[in-house]
Amino acid sequence: MSAFLPYAPLNTPKAFGDRLWIVDGPEIHMDYGPTSIPFPTRMTIARLADGTLWVHSPIAPDKDLLSAIDRLGPVAWLIAPNSLHYWYVADWQAIYPGARTLAVPDLATRAKRPFRIDAMLDGEAVLPEELETVFVPGTLVNEAVFFHRPSRTVVLTDLIENFEPQRIRSRFYRGLVRLSGAAHPDGKAPIDLRLTFWPRRARVRRAVAAILSWDCERVVMAHGLPYERDGAAELRRALRWAC
Questions:
Q1: CATH number (domain holding residue 208)
Q2: Could you give the CA distance from residue 165 to residue 68 in angstroms, rounded to a whole number?
Q3: For residues 219 and 127, what is the distance between their CA atoms, to the nearest angstrom?
Q4: Which residue range forms the structural domain that includes residue 180?
Q5: Is residue 1, in this structure, part of any structural domain at all?
Q6: Using one digit for the tens of pLDDT, what is the confidence trace for 174-224?
Q7: Among 93, 95, 84, CA closest to 192
């Protein structure tokens, strides 16, 4: 049995705004010291003005998911948006070899499963006109945060986590999420992740200020309940630790 009650249906694109979809995927386990911790997965897809697709934080591909995506349009962009969210990019590159892959800089040397990187997400990468990005530098984890203008959606991975306690089956993990500070309704980056940004707090503060300047209505993250309204207020609340 999985540790989390899933956001069904899985492996199915679900509309999340104008030309934007989210796909909730299977649970994974991430190594954490001598143990591993379960996480639900989610990716985000945007259809661009030219009809091609931008795929953020790709999850494990399967036949039905790929068929659904191909019905949306051809995949032209693959995004590895932070130091932890890259594992399946190599699989997607094999399926869509013509897609351009962007990744945060440290993955060029630190990825445990190497993949081709066409450009770095360092704040200077050339992006489709519908998207803006801000690079948030940490010591162990870096993250590129995106703003999708047509849907007024901020797309991120771990800079905010928003686990709903009632969807966590394990009492132990429920307590761990609450202790980390990543539980709904006050979801945010867990304390261990926040600490990795502390040594570079001046740069992080500037990056967060840029994120908060976006005219945001929605926020989607990789883990937990996304915000379908009041996105700007939720960003201010969840990122207050960095301001």
A1: 3.60.15.10
A2: 31
A3: 19
A4: 14-242
A5: no
A6: 999 999 999 999 999 999 999 999 999 999 999 999 999 999 999 999 999
A7: 84
